[in-house]
């Protein structure tokens, strides 16, 4: 008797939680973009370009002005086609919108972008998922390539997901609680190269700076994380 009444209480708890979760989570689309949102976090995936171009937390714009290629991400990018760099998402792209409740009984929404680079047949996928009650996205990137007739296998140099805000809201680089630093000031990556010299494509020597918190706290060298080429092959 006791066991039976306990289990019916559990069933009641689960079913009363469901409407709350699905009420706060938004996963819908207009002609030009998808929206993923919950009570605090809202983001748009641009259907024409295949990347995120809008993101707010508690109403605060996290990406900044959207002019040209600034203020975007996370988005997929690679150095992997025969000619080099490629940003999947404009031509030959299909999107799929997801909405559901996961095994922890939390509502989620997601967008999956699938892009084919037609000249080689390389397939790219980017996943963006948001759970109710969370203030960040879950992302996953996938690359597939099958071409037995004319294989192209020489050029998978990098495969990366980039977050490129154009706002001065972001002030620090953080790996974890014990490894972080303020951005250099002035930041040579944004064109102000005072007392700096380029030593590699996205790395500067800043050791002569006398009053730069990045140099004092972290290092004489700075690599722009937004431009760094992560070698994977
Ligand atoms: C998506 O849902 C939100 C919240 O219900 C609503 O404000 C918005 O108009 C919807 N967008 C579309 C394109 O249906
Ligand atoms: C394989 O690669 C060749 C040359 O890049 C291309 O012409 C062909 O369409 C590709 N095959 C597939 C199935 O994508
Ligand atoms: C750093 O200072 C040294 C010694 O004054 C000088 O030779 C060098 O050119 C300076 N480099 C930069 C990047 O300012
Ligand atoms: C630039 O470097 C020179 C020495 O090369 C130093 O005297 C000066 O204070 C530096 N300025 C800044 C802003 O770091």
Automatic annotation (TrEMBL):
It comes from the Eukaryota. It comes from Nemania bipapillata. This is Uncharacterized protein.
């Amino acid at each position: 008797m006791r066991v039976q009444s306990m289990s019916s209480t559990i069933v009641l708890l689960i079913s009363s939680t469901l409407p709350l979760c699905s009420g706060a989570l938004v996963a819908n689309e207009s002609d030009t973009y998808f929206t993923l949102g919950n009570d605090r976090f809202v983001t748009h995936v641009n259907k024409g370009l295949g990347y995120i171009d809008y993101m707010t937390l508690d109403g605060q714009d996290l990406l900044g002005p959207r002019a040209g290629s600034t203020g975007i991400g996370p988005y997929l990018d690679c150095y992997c086609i025969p000619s080099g760099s490629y940003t999947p998402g404009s031509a030959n792209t299909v999107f799929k919108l997801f909405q559901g409740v996961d095994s922890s009984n939390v509502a989620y929404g997601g967008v999956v972008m699938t892009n084919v680079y037609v000249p080689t047949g390389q397939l790219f996928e980017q996943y963006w998922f948001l759970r109710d009650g969370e203030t960040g996205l879950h992302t996953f990137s996938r690359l597939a390539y099958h071409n037995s007739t004319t294989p192209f296998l020489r050029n998978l140099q990098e495969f990366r997901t980039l977050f490129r805000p154009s706002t001065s809201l972001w002030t620090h680089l953080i790996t974890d609680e014990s490894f972080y630093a303020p951005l250099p000031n002035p930041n040579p990556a944004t064109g102000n190269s005072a007392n700096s010299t380029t030593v590699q494509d996205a790395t500067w020597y800043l050791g002569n700076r006398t009053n730069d918190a990045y140099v004092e706290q972290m290092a004489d060298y700075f690599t722009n994380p937004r431009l760094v080429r992560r070698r994977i092959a």
